[in-house]
Write a structure and sequence with these properties.
The protein is α/β, with parallel strands linked by helices. The chain has a single domain, classed as 3-Layer(aba) Sandwich (Rossmann fold). It contains 5 helices and 5 strands; from the N terminus they run βαβαβαβαβα. Strands 2-1-3-4-5 form a 5-stranded parallel sheet, sandwiched between helices. β3, α3 (about 70-80) and β4 form a beta-alpha-beta unit. The chain starts with 11 loop residues before the first strand and ends with a helix.
Length: about 150
């Protein structure tokens, strides 16, 4: 079994951002800290389609996206259908937006402009939380099925 801390095991992250410059910046940061960028999307619908096909380990999601669906709605869909954790990245610090985002139980919330240390720590915490939740699901499934 591959250890999650092993350098041979890279977590795959999907970037959902409608600004190509920010997408590139995030991609460089992810590669620099040891993650694998498995794709990028500029709209919520595109993100859901890509996530369905490739099953990323995590999605970095901008809240305000072009199109009819925003990042918060996309996060609900990704978690509800595929159990893919989402970390929001946004320049929007308004309380109403934060409250909407919190209702999706995100695995993190990072404000732009990005700080590499905060970015790195948030991703580590998101993956740790996801692993713990998977353990609880597995344990509850084992008890129910026993």
């Amino acid at each position: 079994m591959i250890s999650l801390d092993s350098p041979t095991f890279k977590k795959g992250i999907l970037i959902v951002e409608d600004d190509p410059v920010i997408t590139s910046l995030i991609g460089f940061m992810l590669k620099d800290i040891g993650y694998l960028v498995v794709g990028s999307a500029a709209t919520a619908h595109e993100a859901i389609d890509i996530a369905k096909k490739i099953g990323p380990d995590l999605v970095l999601m901008d809240i305000h996206l072009k199109g009819q669906m925003d990042g918060i709605e996309a996060a609900k869909t990704l978690w509800g259908l595929y159990n893919i954790p989402v970390v929001f990245i946004t320049a929007d610090a308004e309380d109403a937006t934060l409250q909407r985002a919190i209702k999706t139980a995100p695995f993190g919330y990072i404000e732009k402009p990005l700080n590499k240390d905060v970015f790195t720590l948030t991703l580590k915490m998101a993956f740790l939380r996801y692993e713990e939740e998977k353990k609880r699901w597995d344990a509850s499934t084992t008890r129910v099925g026993a």
